[in-house]
Specification:
disordered C terminus; 4 helices
Amino acid sequence: MRKFSTLIIKYNTWLLFFLYCAIAFLFMRLQQDDVQAELHTGGMEFSAFINEHVMSFNSLFTMKRENERMMRVNTDLLSRVLSMETAAVDKRNRRKILADTTLNASGFIMARVVDRKFSDRDNMLVIDAGWRKGIKKDMTVLVPEGLVGRVTSVSEHYARVMPVIHPDFKVVVVADSCNSMGILSWSGGREFLAQVEHIPISSHLKLGERFVTSDFSTFSLRGIPVGRVARIKADNLFYDVDIWLGVDFSTLTQVLIAPLKTEQEQTGITGYTTEKKARL
């Protein structure tokens, strides 16, 4: 290392001379047109490369914002289309119910089923009408095809309905032609099949005969269709009767709520209250 330092000090003049010559040669080369053109071209290419990538990054951010804007527009359009389609379906269902000539719906309140719980035992419906629309507990819920159930609880804008296919639901029904009277109930299982109890074996009940609600019911109006006899089996004193329900609960969307039945005079003279009759 010491020898190398000594050598540099001894020949420093020549080293500086060669360094100056190299720098001069480099400046001479840079003065030539082709070298300047190459440097200029290279600079332009480098600048274009940088601009291109900067613009690509900007376009990515711009495209993201545009995609978000288009997504908001598409979401708004989809919401409008769904709202219009839903309104059209509701209007069609309401028109169908009101056009039924077998049912006088004047004074009835129309509502839409907004929630439901179906199982082999515990079933429930929620409708979009509450006490603000005049809904009260124990009002009858129905459609032209038949009895749906009764109102069990009411809030400001909604009401809970116990349907026919609930183990706690009971209603007094009567056969159309033979006037045999019994109590309709549901023992679970299939939602389209219910049972009628306390039909005496002396009755002339037949297969296919229609059952409707009776005057004996403490909440339901008289004459609402319930279903038709599907099976009759004789027991000791009474028939074991199955009926096909008239309402298809799987497709239920719009319902009617009948005015509350007034029975103060009836319950007063019989000595029974609605609670004692267990909502028949």
